[in-house]
Amino acid sequence: MKVRSLLLLLAVSLLCACSNSGDSSPAPVDQASALAAQLSASHTPANEVFIQLLLDNELGSDPLYLIEYRQLKDDTVETQVLLDNYAEALNEKLASVGAYVGFENTVLRQVSIPDERVWHEVTGIYFPSPQALLDLLQDAGYQQAVQNKYSATLGLHSFLITLLVDELPATEPDKNAFYMANLNQHRERALYADGTDHGLTGREADALYTDRMLAEVLPTIGAYPVLAGEYRHLLLGTDADWDTFALVRYPSLPEFFGMISTPLFQELVVNKGAGLARTSAMMTSFDLL
Length: 289
Fold this sequence. Notes:
Blueprint (H helix, E strand, L loop, with lengths): L1 H20 L9 H9 L8 H8 L8 E9 L4 H20 L3 E13 L8 E7 L2 H9 L1 H13 E14 L11 E9 L15 H20 L2 E13 L7 E7 L2 H8 L2 H13 E9 L5
Antiparallel strand pairs: 1-3, 1-4, 2-3, 2-8, 4-6, 5-7, 5-8, 6-7
């Protein structure tokens, strides 16, 4: 009986060995994971979940903008050479998918810094469709070129917006003009100074500010949003807790300060404060590429 049991165990072991020998090859690498690994920098991870949405063609076919905030390593010739090399390769690749850089702004002053991160540039790239963005991200030449950008930066925050306003100027703006880049996160419920929500959500309270600003305040000084949209998907970085993005043109600093000192603005901005959990506002130059 002992001999028979030993023979049976040996047979089973041989069968297991044979069945496992056919599975010795490594499991296939997930496509989204592989692409995320190609696009990630040491200081900024790529969003694998978003990449999977692109691969699954779940984002429709509407045009979109990819907005990117950059924190540069330093203000040296070497950093600029890296960025110039990246820009040259990027523009060539963008043209091949029908995309283009709409603006590349230098940050002049950060008005509010909710996460204590210092940003130096804000850029916006137009894509005719999500598929065009995916084609770019999968391009081996782009993946190689983007390493220059990573070497020149300490941090990146790159995300998509679905377009609500797209009126970027076709020519260089007046030299006195500047552009305020805004990221907003709404409260779930509004919170006014009296401790109540006035029956409003955070988004509704902010809309009381935004709608009247657009209709009654900004036109009086010739200010207007040139790009605005809903914050939808994070591509690079870790901070996805935003709701809207807007780039607003102001004709000059004196006119801006005159606007915010008016009684009407002071009345309306209370709703903005009640509606927003946090906001990031930066004064930038406008560089048309």
